[in-house]
């Protein structure tokens, strides 16, 4: 039968769902995409995208659970959030508390958060909870680029990147405490505002069963509820639109 996700590969002359995005990416549509639309990819671009996403799935299979990721050194930068799950990042020896870190023009040496897009290695792994057994649900890439020019990204151009202009970090933990807060409000949460206007993010939902059939690159998944991931595979959320789900982080 027809493949259900990129892990199954690409069958020539077919139009798999991940090659036919119809959404706008969910929240945070950037002005860079004004007047543009997503759509069906050519067979050549579809095959390229299929194997780009397949590479990411296979690479991330090393860490199927949150416990696996944290044992390998990943840090939870965003706690479980409706529509997204967690965001786990590999920091290696990097710390925001380093005296050379500039909150107004941040760089992240010793991490893979830089100006290079690597389709195979998303900067963030997303898990469906904060318990050790929570399963991998999705990926996020995070790349430095000019404010008016999103990264080249995936084949086909259906990956609409978004930006989080200012994030409140608890710097000692690289933990995000909020978005677009005043300095006073951020300090009340024990954090420091960091300017991220030069950093672009895109999500992809290609981990079974966390597939988003209307737009593989949407920001949120409707079955990641505020109180945890949906366990009933017959629930209505699996067939819902992904356009307006979840929080704005």
What does the model show?
The chain is of the alpha+beta class. The protein has one domain (6-225). It is built from three helices and 13 strands. It has helices at residues 43-60, 66-71, 183-188, and strands at residues 74-81, 85-90, 124-127, 136-144, 162-163, 166-170, 175-179, 192-195, 199-204, 206-207, 210-211, 224-225, 228-229. The strands form four sheets. Strands 1-2-3-4-9-5 form a six-stranded antiparallel β-sheet. A three-stranded antiparallel β-sheet has the order 7-6-8. It has a two-stranded antiparallel sheet with strand order 10-11. The chain is globular and about 55 Å long. Residues 244-249 have low confidence and may be disordered.
How do the strands and helices of this protein lay out in sequence?
Elements: H1 43-60, H2 66-71, E1 74-81, E2 85-90, E3 124-127, E4 136-144, E5 162-163, E6 166-170, E7 175-179, H3 183-188, E8 192-195, E9 199-204, E10 206-207, E11 210-211, E12 224-225, E13 228-229
Antiparallel strand pairs: 1-2, 2-3, 3-4, 4-9, 5-9, 6-7, 6-8, 10-11, 12-13
